[in-house]
Amino acid sequence: MAKIHEITLIPGDGIGPEVTGAAIKVIEAAGVKVNWDVVEAGAKVMDEYKTPLPDYVLESIKKNKIALKGPVTTPVGSGFRSVNVALRQAFNLYANVRPIKTYEGIPTRYEDVDLIIVRENTEDLYAGVEHKIGDYAAESIKIITREASTRIAQFAFDMAKKQNRKKVTAVHKANIMKFSDGLFLECARNVSKEYGDVEFEDMIVDAMSMKLVQNPEKYDVLVMPNLYGDILSDMAAGLVGGLGVAPGANIGDEISVFESIHGSAPDIAGKNIANPTAAILSGVMMLRFIGEMEAADKIDAAIKNVLKTGKALTVDLGGKATTSEFTEEVIKNL
Ligand code: NAI
Q1: Does this model's pTM top 0.85?
Q2: Which of 229, 293, 302, 321 has the fewest CB atoms lying closer than 10 Å?
Q3: Which atom of ligand 1 is nearest to 316's Cα?
Q4: Is 166 a residue of the active site?
Q5: pLDDT tens digits, residue range 301-327?
Q6: SS3 string of 116-165?
Q7: What are the tens digits of pLDDT across the range 15-57?
Q8: Among this protein's residues, is 162 annotated catalytic?
C-alpha cells in the first residue's frame, strides 16, 4: 500500500492559498497520499496571535520535518522581522536551493538555461543585527562565519556531484568586503579542493549579474551569501519567465521547507490569475526529497507538456488562463 506522508502545509498570504491549493491538487492527482497538517501563518493570524508565526506552526513543522509553504507578507520597515527569516533560523534551514530553468513554450530571450542558485540562508545581513545610532544613522552588521560558509559550499559541491553538474561558481564581493566576503570565498576555495572532478570558479557579484544576463546558459551551480542569493534569484527567475515559474527549497539537516521564490503578490491576490507553476514545481522538489520519484517525474512532465503546447498559459506568461484552468490542464496531462 502507498505510504501516507505527514506534511505541514502553510497556505500563507495573498496568492499563497491559490498557488499552494493548486500544488496539493496536482500532488494528490499524481497519486501521492498526504495527510496535510494545515497551519496558518502570516498577516491573517497577526490580530489573533500578535505574531505572524505562532508556536503551533513551529510545532507542526518540528513534528513532520517537511513543509510546503506559501508566501507570507512581511511588513516593510517596522514590526515583526520576517516569518521566512525566522523559520530559516529556527530550524537551521541553511541551504536555499533555487533551480532556474527554461521551459519550452515560455516566452523568454534565452534557451537552455539550467542553473541552480544555492543561497546561504542563515546569516549575512539577514542575521538581523541592526541598530540605530541616535536619530541620524543606522547600522546593519553583516555576519559571515567559517562554519556556515564551509557548510553551504559543501552543500553546493555535493549537489553538483549528485546531479552530475560540471561547475560551481562562488559569487562574492571580496574585493570590497575583504573580511566578510573574503572569508566566504576562502571557505569556498578550500572546499573546492576536496571535489577535484567539479570545476570551480569565483565571480564578483556585479560581474556575475552582467554575465548572467548575457549568457545564463554558461552557468551551472552558483553558491553565494544570503543577500546576493536573494537578489540574483529574482533576477535569474526573470531570465526564464519570471517569479511565477521559479520554485525553491529551504534545506536543513533535519527539516526542509519547500516554497516558491515569489512573495504574496498582493497586486494579483484573490483574482485566480496567479501562476501556480512555481508552487507546483516546489512540490515536485519536495516529492523528490521524500522519495516519491515517479510522481515527481510525472508532474514535471505534465507541466512541460502544458507549457509547450501553450494552451493554458497564465497572464504573467502572456496567456489568458486562470490559476484553476492551468492546474486542471496539468492534472489532465499527468
Ligand atoms: P512578489 O514576489 O510578491 O511580487 C513581485 C511581482 O511578481 C508582482 O508584480 C507579482 O504580481 C508578480 N508575481 C509574483 N508571483 C507571481 C505568480 N505566482 N504569478 C504571477 N505573478 C507573480 O514580491 P513583492 O511584491 O515585493 O512582495 C510582496 C510581499 O511578499 C512582501 O510582503 C514580501 O515581504 C513578501 N515576500 C514573501 C516571500 C516568502 O514568503 N517566501 C518571498 C518574497 C516576498
Answers
A1: yes
A2: 293
A3: 20
A4: no
A5: 999 999 999 989 999 999 999 999 999
A6: EEEEECCCEHHHCCEEEECCCEEEECCECCHHHHHHHHHHHHHHHHHCCC
A7: 999 999 999 999 999 999 999 999 999 988 988 998 889 999 9
A8: no
Domains annotated on the chain, with CATH? 1-98+242-334 (3.40.718.10), 109-239 (3.40.718.10)
CA distance 280 to 113: 20
Number of other CB atoms surrounding residue 112 within 10 Å: 9
The helix/strand/coil state of 110 is coil
Long-range interactions of 158-165: CB distance < 8 A, separation 24+ = 159/97, 159/116, 159/118, 159/221, 160/195, 160/198, 160/220, 160/221, 161/195, 161/197, 161/198, 163/116, 165/116, 165/198, 165/220, 165/221
Measured in residues, the chain has a length of 334
User: Which among 174, 183, 82 is positioned nearest to 128, based on CA atoms?
Assistant: 82
**Three cell numbers, residue 112:** 537552455
**Phi-psi sector, 231: left (phi>0), alpha (psi -120 to 50), beta:** alpha
CA distances from 147 to 150, 168, 294 (A): 5, 19, 36
